[in-house]
Amino acid sequence: MKLFIETLGCAMNERDSEHLIAELEQKEGYVLTDRADEADLILINTCSVREKPERKLFSEIGQYAQIKKPNAKIGICGCTASHMGADIIKKAPSVNFVLGARNISKITQVIHKDKAVEVDLDYDDSLYAFESVRSSGIKALLNISIGCDKSCAYCIVPHTRGKEISIPSDLILNEARKLAQNGIKEILLLGQNVNNYGVRFSSEHKKINFATLLSELSRVEGIERIRFTSPHPLHMDDEFIEEFARNKKVCKSIHMPLQSGSNKILKSMRRGYTKEWFLNRVEKMKSLIPNLCISTDIIVGFPSEEESDFADTLEVLEKVRFDTLYSFIYSRRPHTLADLWGDKWSVPKDIASSRLRTLQARHREILQEKASQEIGRVYEVLIENTFDDGAMRFSEGRSDNNKLIHINDECLKIGDFVDVEIVKNEGGSLFGRVKRG
Ligand code: 5AD
Ligand code: SF4
To answer: Which among 63, 164, 222, 267 could bridge 180 via Cys, Cβ 3.0 to 4.6 Å?
Structure first.
């Protein structure tokens, strides 16, 4: 039996797909294929955070239905499954089952029931022991919480992933130890608001916060690097920042989703922090961590955003000089507060597009300015891939602060830690030379 799976959206979804594959391979005997037309089961693990990709889902289902083997099943999993439920089967009768984001532990049941719809938002699989993911390489994803308790006015996620529940720390630590025994050197901790860890457990559990979890994980022998995504700026208290800065195993790159630099917009988005708090947290981190890289998410064109609000966002961009920017035009989503406002304060599409272009253009300039300063810097790089094109052997890896660096060297193997000096920057791609001796 062959399984084809397409994964859209974020790292959470990637992790869910790993779990779906592990359950199906080890309990149901499936093997993965990258060809939908030869699969017996086609899964789409969907994202619903913006409207456009979600709209494309139905044409995609239509395409799979046309090319699939006659008895092959189609299952829709993930966030769109959560919030559309049975409507997916109504709109696309070729779909055999619908499995919502926090119900994926039921995969081995739903594949045997035609037209099953499992989208219970209160379902809790935070204690479920998924079959082990056969990870190759040296990096692994590790869930520390499920769901999201926030109510950001634009965001559908609380409605697709339900309330926030932390996974007990002994389960997380055991998993980390197991990963280390299998040769994993770097873990990426996953949750919707990782630094809110410990607020609610579904079983008796001692109160431990994210800073303590980081500290405990860093004592796992063999795990050399710890990353995490996504933290929330609101929960970046001093204790968290100090542990982040102090702990040598915690990589010095952080995602700080700004969303907007305007206090008026942040308030109507219900983000819970101000521009001043955000900048203050950045300042504190930068003062403790000289090489820190910061990435962010920004939405333009949120209802009632005026030029002056957008100017505030540009001001934060100027001050923080983010290393990576993910930027989006506001997309109206069902089950959100902002959806209830209708078109009352909508920003015209052309204005939103023009703000997005301005933001991205200024960010490109900032990146160019920053890139020129990279030459001569030395980073400790963990080699993640090696390539051999016949004529040449080359490698790539990441610095602690998450820069991808290409290295032309004969002797490197996946898993090596090497000091690399940056020698060239080609349109943002960094090339380095191993420093020996
Ligand atoms: N419209 C546009 N962007 C959105 N995001 C979340 N919801 C929306 C929306 N309705 C963005 C946010 C979030 C990232 C994952 O997606 O910036 O941080
Ligand atoms: Fe991830 Fe959010 Fe998309 Fe769900 S809706 S897959 S949580 S980005």
So the answer is: 222
Q: How many CA atoms lie within 13 A of 71 on its CB side?
A: 4
How far is 264 from 261, CA to CA, in rounded Å? 9
> How is the chain split into domains, by residue range?
2-118, 139-372, 377-434
The alpha carbon dihedral of 378, 379, 382, 384 has a sign of negative
Its CATH class, for the domain covering 377-434, is: mainly beta
Q: Distance, CA 17 to ligand 2 centroid (Å)?
A: 13
Q: How remote is the CA of residue 155 from the centroid of ligand 1, in Å? A: 6
Give the distance from CA 132 to its chain's centroid.
21
pLDDT tens digits along 44-83:
999 999 998 888 999 999 999 999 999 999 999 999 999 9
Max alpha carbon distance in the chain (Å)? 66
Any ligand 2 atom below 6 A from CB of 49: yes
Distance between CA atoms of residues 406 and 148, nearest Å: 37
**Smallest Cα–Cα separation from 294: which of 277, 264, 316, 310?**
316
Residue 205: is its pLDDT beyond 90? no
